Amino acid sequence: MRTIFWDDDTGTVRMIDQRRLPGALEVVSCRTHAEVAEAIRNMTIRGAPAIGAAAAFGLALAARESQAADLPGLLADLESAARTLGETRPTAVNLAWALARVLAAASRFTGPAGDLRGFVLAEAQRLADEDVEINRRMAAHGATLIDKGDTIIHHCNTGALAVVDWGTALGVIRTAHEQGKHPHVLVDETRPRLQGARLTAWELSQYGIPYEIISDSMAGFFLSTGQVQKVFFGADRIAANGDVANKIGSYMLALAAQDNGVPVYSVAPTSTVDLALEHGGLIPIEERAQEEVLGIQFDGQPVVPQGARARNPAFDITPARLVTAIVTENGIVRPPFEVNLPKFVRS
Ligand code: MRU
Fold first, then answer.
1. Which atom of ligand 1 sits closest to the CA of residue 272?
2. pLDDT > 70 in the chain, percent
3. Around Cβ 12, how many Cβ atoms within 10 Å?
4. pLDDT at 269 over 70
5. So what's the pLDDT on residue 53?
6. CB of 200 closer than 6 A to ligand 1?
C-alpha cells in the first residue's frame, strides 16, 4: 500500500495515519486542502517527499473545492491553497517544490476552466508516481555502497512511510537486503517523536530485515567500538554546499561517525536539494511544541517535573564536511558538493 494515494470513488486523498503506528495501521481521508494542511502539520503524514506529495494532492482538492468559473479565478484559489499548505512545515523543501511544480503546470494550462481540475489531479498523480520510481533509482545507486553483512545506524524514518513508496535511506537498505547483502540495522529511536522506534522498526519487521533499537545517545558507543560500518539517513533540505538538514540528532551522529572513520551517507531525491541556498545556515529550522519533549512517560508516570520547559528544534544541520556522499536518483554525489551537486540536480 502507498503511504498516500488518491481515491477516485470518494474524491478524497487517503493516507496512512503515522501517529497511530505501530499500534494500528489506519488509513484516513482528507476531503479538503485545509484537512491536508492539518494532516501535514500534526504529522498524520510526515517525511520530506511524502509531505510534498500530500501538498500536491492538497492542490488537487483545492481545484475541486473552487467555485470559480474561469481560469484566473481557479488559479487564484490554487495560489491561496498553496499558501495554506506551504505554511505547514518550513524545513523540508519538497513541500515548496511540489507546490511550485503543480502551480507552474496549472498556470500553463490553456483548456476550458472546468478541465483544470482534472489536470491538477493528473499532475499530482504524476508527481506521486515519479516519487516511487525515483526512490527505486536512489535505492539501486545507494545499495552499491553497502557491503555484505554491514551493520548500519539509521536515523529517523526514511522508509516507505516517509515517501510515496519504497524509501530513501531505508529504501537503500531494503534493496541491499533484497540483493542478499544481509544488512543489520541499529535503529536510532529518534527522540522526541520516536520515528525510528515506532516507524522504522515497524517497517523493518514488515520486510524481515534484522534490527535492534538503540537510544540516540548509544550511537557513539557502537561507532567507537567498531560495531558499525555505515551511517545512513535521509534529508529534508540540502544546501548548495552539501550541508544537510535532517531530523534532529543527525549532526551528533555524523560527528561521532567522523571521529571513528565511519562513512555517513545522506539519501535524498534531487527535489530535496535547494541550490538557491548557499549553505545550511540559511535553512529554516522548524521548532515544534515543547509537549513533544515533555510528554514522555516512564512506568506510566510523567518523566519531567511539573512546570518544566523544553526546547524542540525538529531538525539540525550536518555540515558537508561530515557527509561522505549524497545519494540521489541521478547517482552518488561526492565532494566537493558545491561543484558536483548542480551536475546531478540538472542532469
Ligand atoms: O519530522 P519528520 O518526521 O517529517 O522528519 C523526517 C525526516 O527528518 C526524514 O529523515 C527526512 O524527511 C528524510 S527521509 C524521507
1. 13
2. 100
3. 20
4. yes
5. 98
6. no
pTM: 0.97
291-344 pLDDT, tens digit each: 999 999 999 999 999 999 999 999 999 999 999 999 999 999 999 999 999 999
Among residues 323, 327, 317, the alpha carbon closest in space to that of 336 is found at 323
> What letter does residue 147 receive in the DSSP assignment?
P
C-alpha cell at 331: 547517482
* DSSP assignment of 68-106: --SHHHHHHHHHHHHHHHHTS-SS-HHHHHHHHHHHHHH
Q: Quick one: cell of 154?
A: 539509521
Segments making up each domain of the chain, as ranges:
4-136, 140-344
**Ligand 1 midpoint to CA 150 (Å):** 23
End-to-end CA distance of the chain: 31
140-344 folds as Rossmann fold (3.40.50)
The CATH code for residues 4-136 is: 1.20.120.420
Q: Which of 236, 243, 274, 316 is catalytic?
A: 236
